[in-house]
Specification:
Strand order of the largest sheet: 5-4-3-6-2-1-7-8
Strand content: 15-25%
Structural class: alpha+beta
Radius of gyration: 30 Å
Helix content: 25-40%
CATH topology of the largest domain: Heat Shock Protein 90
Bound molecules: adenosine-5'-triphosphate, magnesium ion
Number of helices: 20
Largest sheet: 8 strands, mixed
Shape: elongated
CATH architecture of the largest domain: 2-Layer Sandwich
CATH superfamily of the largest domain: Histidine kinase-like ATPase, C-terminal domain
Length: 609
């Protein structure tokens, strides 16, 4: 500690701006976002973006908006100078994208900025240049062009954090996509190093969303158009066939502003939970309109976070509207029917149909019966006499059930553990087991996922998980963002038990995985953790979002459908389920197993009536 502190003094303006810039202008894409928002606030109908060297050398954004009067040009660059709000009352009702009067000042503190602008009345344009004095007449159509040159050249420490031009260009294009999705009535065009790479004409929100969401989306989506309480909701919801391995096509806009809001994403995830498997991410574009007085956007410097006055109501409304839209679609699309409730199992129409229904249910051709199925004595068709187990995958007749002896014959099942002993595997999806009450059906993947998830959670509670080093590292091709995450978030990855390293600019190697996930495919496990980190940020991946992160990981280690398990493996899973708290539900809240009692089975066969 120094003997005496230096006297307190106000920071110089430039330093204040540079500190603020750290938050507002994180990278070229943030400049693009701010300039696009300014153009939209100015009422532009057409906006052109030009990037050179990933935006690090030059970002130029031209609009045909209202322009800035020449005498106000210096003010535009001044901190806390804005034309958009003048009072607290206006702040609370803010409807423009900008309002802090901070963006241009922040950008100007870390780059050279030139603004050329002309209002509708002015005979010609004027230009201001932060590297020159005064305002000079200039050529130009009505509207504004803002050029940002040599970003961060004066703050080299920050420049070091930037990645390759290609990566930064990709981020800029993402920023443009997000803004453009919310403003379909405005035409957008993008040039990268002088070459036009995107041109979206003005059109309907739906046309724009279809352009922004990609081709598989075109054929597979539902439209939402609903009013729920104070919330007006428009959107396109991708169906499962348009789902993705990464959550990179989820666009949520509130009052024309792209937001990353946990509450809204959570509501969406819940709405999809019935339809989508845990490792798939839906694609959707949502446009919420809400009275600006009911939402506070002044929470985060980049304005991507919100605070709703009544978050529960918004969550409820969004989830309900989305679920309904997705379910309504399901009625027309049989492949999307929700699972038949287990309390109403399929019954044969008539006693005579029993045999074929049975054969169907077990995937066995008529005339063969799984060994261990001992209750069907006396039925015609050789069911009782077939002593041979149905062959496995390679077997004739398309039999698809791995079948073996029940560990405990039907007669003495009374002393069996709660979930009983495995009998067989059905279509690579369910385990059939026999317990004291009758038949138990287990959703193999969901149950295993849950067990692994709980195991991971327990381990992490006690520190970094045990790491299983891979004898041969698994390598995979990675995009620049993934490489960057590995370079910058090594600590987070280590805390999750992942040992990753950069092999080359486009290749990553997995050298170790959490021991609890030793069975997972290392590359796809690593990929999905990286995509989770990218989505939620590494600090949240270990805190608020930890369970989501672990669920993603567990999903990779869980046995996949169609993997043939031995009876021993199946029984091991049942025992583990019994000793895992919360194993009755999968990570998405669905049951992992159901009991079909003997009485119910008897009922199907009209026995004992
Ligand atoms: N493209 C543009 N067309 C017309 N006026 C503009 C344009 N860009 C900036 N301005 C003017 O410059 C002012 C300052 O812009 P700046 O982006 O720094 O702040 P802001 O948009 O008011 O608030 P925020 O910091 O939240 O973005 C704006 O209030 C607006 O009057
Ligand atoms: Mg602004």
């Amino acid at each position: 500690m120094p003997d005496t502190l230096r006297p307190i003094r106000a920071l110089p303006d430039l330093l204040v701006s540079q500190i603020a810039a750290g938050e507002v202008v994180e990278r070229p894409a943030s400049v693009v976002k701010e300039l696009l928002e300014n153009a939209l606030d100015a009422g532009a109908r057409r906006i052109e973006v030009r990037l050179e060297d990933g935006g690090m050398r030059r970002i130029a954004i031209s609009d045909d908006g209202c322009g800035i009067p020449p005498d106000e040009l210096p003010l535009a660059l001044q901190r806390h100078a804005t034309s958009k709000i003048a009072s607290l009352a206006e702040l609370e009702q803010v409807a423009t994208l900008g309002f802090r009067g901070e963006a241009l000042a922040s950008i100007a503190s870390v780059a050279r900025v030139q603004i050329t602008s002309r209002t509708a009345q002015a005979p010609h344009a004027h230009r201001i240049d932060t590297f020159e004095d005064g305002i000079a007449p200039a050529a130009g159509a009505p509207g504004t062009t803002v050029e940002v040159l040599e970003l961060y050249s004066a703050t080299p420490a920050r420049r070091k954090f930037l990645k390759s031009a290609a990566t930064e260009t990709a981020h800029c294009a993402d920023a443009l996509r997000r803004v453009a999705l919310a403003h379909p009535g405005v035409a957008f065009a993008l040039w990268v190093e002088g070459r036009q790479t995107l041109s979206w004409p003005a059109g309907t929100w739906m046309a724009r969303a279809l352009e922004g969401l990609g081709d598989d989306f075109r054929e597979a989506h539902r439209v939402v158009d609903a009013q729920a309480g104070p919330l007006q909701l428009l959107g396109l919801l991708g169906l499962p066939t348009a789902s993705r391995g990464r959550p990179d096509r989820q666009f949520v806009h509130v009052n024309g502003r792209f937001v990353r809001d946990r509450l809204l994403t959570h509501a969406a995830r819940q709405a999809y939970s019935e339809l989508l498997h845990g490792d798939r991410h839906p694609a959707y574009a949502l446009f919420l309109a809400i009275d600006p007085g009911l939402v506070d956007v002044n929470v985060h410097p980049a304005k991507t976070e919100l605070r709703f006055r009544d978050p529960q109501a918004v969550h409820r409304a969004l989830q309900q509207v989305m679920s309904e839209a997705l379910r309504a679609g399901a009625a027309e699309h049989p492949s999307l029917q929700p699972a038949r409730p287990w309390t109403a199992p399929m019954r044969p129409a008539a006693p005579g149909a029993t045999q074929s229904a049975l054969a169907l249910a077990f995937g066995a051709p008529p005339g063969t019966a799984p060994a261990g199925w001992r209750t069907a004595t006396g039925l015609p068709g050789g069911l009782a006499s077939a002593a041979e187990p149905v062959p496995g995958a390679g077997g004739a007749g398309g039999a698809d059930a791995a079948v073996g002896e029940a560990a405990s014959p039907a007669g003495d099942a009374a002393g069996s553990p709660p979930l009983g002993f495995a009998l067989a595997q059905l279509h690579g999806v369910y385990i059939l087991a026999q317990n004291a009450h009758g038949l138990v059906l287990i959703d193999m993947h969901a149950a295993h996922e849950r067990v692994v998830f709980e195991r991971l959670k327990r381990e992490l509670d006690q520190g970094p998980p045990a790491v299983q080093s891979l004898l041969i590292p698994a390598t995979f091709r990675a995009d620049p963002l993934e490489v960057r995450l590995v370079e910058e978030d090594a600590a987070t990855l280590a805390a999750l038990g992942l040992d990753l390293s950069v092999l080359s600019p486009g290749t990553l190697a997995v050298r170790g995985v959490p021991a609890a996930l030793a069975d997972a495919d290392p590359a796809s496990l690593a990929r999905s953790v990286l995509s989770e980190l990218r989505e939620v940020g590494s600090s949240r991946a270990l805190t608020e979002q930890r369970n989501e992160t672990l669920a993603t990981m567990a999903c990779h280690a869980a046995v996949r459908a169609n993997r043939r398990l031995t009876l021993q493996e199946m029984n091991a899973l049942l025992r583990e389920m019994e000793s895992t708290a919360g194993a009755d539900q999968c990570n998405h809240g669905r049951p992992t197993w159901v009991q079909v009692g003997m009485a119910e089975l008897d009922g199907w066969f009209l026995r004992g009536r």
